[in-house]
Amino acid sequence: MMEKEIIDFKRKEANGNALIENTATTFNSRFFIDCGEGREIETDDIYLMDMSGWLIPFDLVNRFVQIPRTERWDDEWAEYFCFAEWQQTSDFISIKFKKYERMPPYSGAIKLGITDAYFNKTVIIKCNDGQRRVGRLDTCTSKYDNEPDGESVIIETDEGWLIEIYTDEIESIFCYSIKLKCLKNVHKGRSLVKYKIYNARDCGKGWYALIDESGEEFAYPPKLFEVIQ
């Protein structure tokens, strides 16, 4: 009686990655891993974890590999971002690529007024308990994605931390979609630095609301700025 070959973990992991790559080729694409998403499976010959990453068509691969990793999050590549999720039927394991939705159509974030224009922009979130959070809007989840915790929004701070805030804890959210260059120093209780670039929003009557050097949000007249985006 032949003994069954014992496969070490590295080979199991390699077999799992090969399964993902082989599945990607059926879409005439190559899968570039961003990170693991949990939900693991290990058998006698394979190890897999759900992965997130970019499913890039073969004709765009050369361009994609040349760009810095930080630029892979640009809108140009957003449509290729997806999840590689494993499925098991009896003893058969396969991979399914699932489109990544930054804001599912059933997300509670819609009730807060969030639109596609908010993503990758600086937002200020005012919570019901009086706290304020500022960061780049990364994604939104629905109760179906996030059970049993509930719907949420996820922002990335300037320090690179991801913060998840549940939508039922949010009083309001504003998007700083305007970039302004300050034209003069201001030092009267409030503080602006000449030539510094600020993220801002239109708060009515042509004025701009932004977080100044005091760390608080204030409204300023347009004469102090040059709009650069």
Give the assembly state of these chains. Answer: single chain
Helix content: 10-25%
Count, helices: 3
Helix vs. strand class: mainly beta
> Could you tell me the mean pLDDT?
85
Distance between the termini: 73 Å
Q: Which strand-content bin applies to the residues?
A: over 45%
Kindly report the spatial arrangement of strands forming the biggest sheet. Answer: 8-7-6-5-9
Radius of gyration: 23 Å
Short description:
This protein has helices at residues 9-25, 61-66, 75-78; strands at 29-42, 47-57, 81-89, 92-99, 122-127, 132-141, 152-156, 162-166, 170-176, 178-182, 186-188, 190-192, 197-204, 207-211, 217-220, 225-227.
Describe it:
The strands form four sheets. A five-stranded antiparallel beta sheet has the order 8-7-6-5-9, with no helix packed on it. It has a five-stranded antiparallel beta sheet with strand order 15-14-13-10-16, with no helix packed on it. The protein is mainly beta and 229 residues long. The protein is elongated, with a radius of gyration of 23 Å. It contains three helices and 16 strands. Helix content is 12%, strand content 46%. The protein has three domains: 9-99, no CATH class; 108-176, SH3 type barrels (Roll); 178-227, SH3 type barrels (Roll). Strand 1 (29-42) and strand 2 (47-57) form a beta hairpin.
